[in-house]
Design goal:
alpha+beta; FAD/NAD(P)-binding domain; Elongation Factor Tu (Ef-tu), domain 3; six-stranded antiparallel beta sheet; globular; binds flavin-adenine dinucleotide; methyltransferase; flavin adenine dinucleotide binding; cytoplasm
Length: about 525
């Protein structure tokens, strides 16, 4: 888009939303400054300095087209999402879900960002926004309390996207809260533990994907008898936790309810969630177990496994004691213990319009909030939110109407819910069919109903893509071609926006030196 050449946008946060936004803006010729505070200012959860680091599960959820998560992926693909593209290139086996090798995923995004000469990555903590829109960053020499010792990044941009995520630094959260005059909430989430593959008991665990009798199976399953299950639950609810009273009184991130909190609701509650046995057959008995925990590979080589759905607030010692009561995990070595974290988000229904723009200006330039800070929960939701904020920023700078996705699409429904002033008790939410507009004719059968939502969503998406095209907002190659998405960078070169052959080197989550080439998928360990 010619009108966008010479425009500048600053993006705060090099996470999922921020990276997607930066890449989309750069692909349309805008000069982008992507400001990420790590590694100088760490978060309690991120392990390193990589852009787009996945902090918890490595799963991006279902790929089934007739699920809300699958619809969302279809929407990301149709709009040429760089991050979905990277995820597909780093996929690890996960049944019907899209799961990634997290290190290769980050490496791929870093390669894409580096391939755009019109993206400048600045490593600094943003502590505020000046009236003219210039970002205030912490002076490296100042301590955490001295937020007044800040430098302004110049020149001031034409627009700003804040995508600093659930772990937005305290200084920026305080500044946003002061500027908006509204409450931005902070509460706790929980992350699941990871265990080493070679410490697991292969005589007890069996490999199978749920509802799939044939094939090798992507998950390891730990089967419980009734007695084993009841003993485990009794120990789980009695175990010591890190945050007790304080935590119980807070609202929790829906998808990350700690397993002990779920068990506290009733002995059988986990058997309908993380420990559900349906669709599994224990080869030792030929029967469905009483309960079962699924373990999913964390990396392409299957060296470490994630305890699926076992986010927890237990102390590390208690995690070792109690989780070793799980059949097959008697001698489990923990590569990472489950941990509790803060989650920050703004009151979107009152603060944001449908373009994610702050309704009450905090600077003389348009400011948008994207990702989990806007309250849309989940990895793919954050990517889509960053993409939406970027498209709306482009539209505003080019003086064309804002491209609001129809409510019949998965993200359109989430956006409509999240930015509707009528929404009360706003809590982070992922895409789901509970907030999508009802079908014209009632469809009783759940499977048929979901298929009807998906078919209707596909039509609405096609119309949305056509509108983006007519507004001149689509980058040249999108949709099915997204796997080969190319974008003109500022130098006018045709730069590959997909996985670049960048070599990443870092210490992995298991404390080993790792070097690998994202595009080749090769991994060397030292
Ligand atoms: C503990 C935990 C577990 C989670 N588990 C899952 C899960 O299993 N599945 C799922 O789908 N979602 C999960 N989520 C939600 C997940 O964080 C979001 O879905 C997604 O990462 C949000 O993307 P984002 O871009 O908004 O934020 P992030 O990916 O967190 O990116 C924000 C970036 O901004 C940076 N930043 C923060 N403050 C500043 C500042 N002042 N200046 C500059 N940079 C700053 C951060 O360092 C970070 O890199 C979890 C969240 C938490 C906290």
């Amino acid at each position: 888009m010619e009108t966008l050449a010479g425009k500048r946008v600053d993006v705060v946060g090099g996470g999922l939303a921020g990276c997607e936004a930066a890449l989309q803006l750069a692909a349309r010729g805008i000069s982008v400054r992507l400001v990420e505070m790590r590694p100088n200012t760490p978060t309690p959860v991120h392990a390193g300095s990589s852009l787009a680091e996945l902090v918890c599960s490595n799963s991006l959820k279902s790929q089934k087209p007739d699920s809300a998560a699958g619809m969302l992926k279809g929407e990301l693909a149709a709009l040429g999402s760089f991050l979905l593209n990277a995820a597909l290139s780093c996929a690890v086996p996960a049944g019907g879900a899209l799961a990634v090798d997290r290190e290769r995923f980050s490496c791929a995004i870093e390669g894409s960002v580096a391939s755009f000469s019109n993206i400048q990555v600045v490593r600094a903590e943003v502590v505020g926004v000046r009236d003219d829109g210039a970002l205030l960053v912490r002076d490296e020499g100042s301590g955490p309390e001295e937020s007044s010792a800040a430098n302004a990044l110049s020149p001031a941009p034409d627009a700003l996207i804040v995508a600093s995520g659930p772990l937005t630094s305290d200084a920026l959260a305080a500044s946003l809260q002061q500027a908006t005059g509204a409450e931005s909430l902070a509460f706790y989430d929980a992350a699941a533990p990871i265990v080493m593959a070679d410490s697991l008991n292969g005589d007890v665990l069996f490999r199978q994907s749920r509802y799939e009798d044939e094939g090798a199976g992507d998950y390891l399953n730990a089967p419980f008898t009734k007695d084993e299950y009841e003993r485990f639950i009794a120990e789980l609810v009695a175990a010591r936790r890190v945050i007790a009273k304080d935590f119980e009184t807070r609202e929790l991130f829906q998808a990350c309810q700690p397993i002990e909190e779920i068990a506290r609701k009733g002995t059988d509650a986990p058997r309908f969630g993380a420990l559900k046995p349906v669709g599994l057959t224990d080869p030792r008995t030929g029967r469905r177990p009483w309960a079962a925990l699924q373990l999913r590979a964390e990396d392409a080589h299957g060296m470490a496994y994630n305890l699926v759905g076992f986010q927890t607030n237990l102390t590390f010692g208690e995690q070792q004691r109690v989780f070793r009561l799980i059949p097959g995990l008697e001698h489990a070595e923990f590569a990472r213990y489950g941990v509790m974290h803060r989650n920050t988000f703004v009151d979107a229904p009152r603060l944001l319009d449908a373009t994610l723009r702050l309704k009450r200006p905090i600077a003389r330039i348009p400011v948008r909030i994207a990702g989990q800070l806007a309250g849309t929960e989940g990895y793919c939701e954050a990517m889509r939110s960053g993409l939406h904020a970027a498209l709306c920023t482009c539209a505003e700078l080019a003086d064309v109407p804002a491209p609001i996705p129809p409510a019949e699409t998965a993200f359109g429904a989430l956006l409509a819910w999240a930015t509707d002033p009528a929404t009360v008790d706003y809590q982070p939410m992922h895409v789901n069919f509970g907030i999508i507009p009802p079908l014209e004719a009632r469809v009783r059968n759940k499977k048929d109903r979901y298929a009807a939502y998906a078919a209707r969503g596909t039509k609405a998406l096609e119309a949305h893509v056509a509108r983006l095209q007519s507004l001149g907002l689509l980058a040249e190659s999108t949709g099915e071609e997204s796997a080969h998405l190319h974008a003109d960078n500022a130098a006018g070169q045709d730069a590959p926006a997909t996985v670049s052959p960048a070599v990443c080197a870092k210490v992995d989550g298991l404390g080993r030196n790792v070097a690998f080439t994202a595009s080749e998928g090769t991994m060397r360990r030292g």
